[in-house]
Amino acid sequence: MNRLAAADAQSFWMSAKIPNDMFQVCGFDGVPADLDQALAELRRNVSACPELLVRIDDSDSWRYPSWVRCDTAEIVVHELEDASWPGCLDAVRGVAARDQLDATKQVWRLHVFVGVEGMPGVSGPGTVVVVQMSHALADGRRATALVGRIFGRDQAVPAVVAPRLGTWALPYLAWRASAAHRRLVQDTESGVVAAPADSWPLQPTNNVPEGPDELRAVVRHRVQLPGPTVTTGVLAAISEALAAELGGVTELGAEVPMAKTGTRYAYNHYGNVSVALHPQLPFHERAARIEAELAARRQRFEHPAVVASDAATAAVPARVLRWGLGHFDPHARSATVTGNTVVSSVNRGPADLSFGGRPVVLSTACPALSPMMGLTHGVHGIGDTVTISVHASPSALPDVDSYVERLSAALDAGD
Fold this sequence. Notes:
six-stranded mixed beta sheet; 415 residues; alpha+beta
């Protein structure tokens, strides 16, 4: 599909107000013997993946932007002032803070850091490659497939199906969405569908990010993490650590991106749900409640009303959507929030990626901050290794190292 779907156009236009590039970090065991040859191999992989050979054309303000051909493959090799693993993470954070993409010129970029010392799972110097990607190009699942293709994985990239009905059908689609919403209300009142999620009081973690932010990573073997699932166990540990760091608060919620099921009509085929974190409960009871909350959010997320609402939104004329986003005020503050932190969890598959013959050992990210969210987490697994990233502003979390210590202890105690 050449035209951007409404969801992808919204992500692209919103990036001008709130930067949302994704920074996907891959750590490799060792340094390629021939760096130029390793980079040439990546370029060959990219040239064989048409989904990466695009940029956005937004020259017609009355229409949705289009995907057009782009053969640019920018790779930046950085010299690290501090070649330690924490120093490399700080360099990644610095790149994320200052170098957002102009998606009308390129929708992805590679950053290479060679000779990183002390990377978890690596006995000598290692290599870190960061895939920076415009969010308009991919959600978590699609980005995982694209990163895999860059590093030689033979994996299909999730395709997008063009909607059968266009803007001319908006009145019908809006009527159908309204009827489906009435059904959702009835199903909720009868108990067939879970009630809407709660909103949460503001916490310091919802402060506007100010000052130099910091990026940390906690690495664990999958079997070391508490259950019943990786996502649930990490959420339960975050709940305990964050409540303690905030002075013993008892009301906390997390905003969790959740992949949608059904036909993919946009590259961004997901939505955000709110989950209570129950910090006052014992660990395993808390984890069970969080798992039940996620299941309830999934059930409501899959109601036909959500599908009907998405279809109506997809048919909104470009000019109308652009006008609405143009009036969005990123500095407006709300009294309540859908989460006191964001926790994004993505399984990046088997540990079959390589760079210049060096095998991948971990994968992490630098999840974006926003005006209402000064603390974000990423949970990324590759092979049997799971890395929990913590991205925080000092205005939201003054002592990030104290929080990371609490998080590490909660993960270990909950096992």
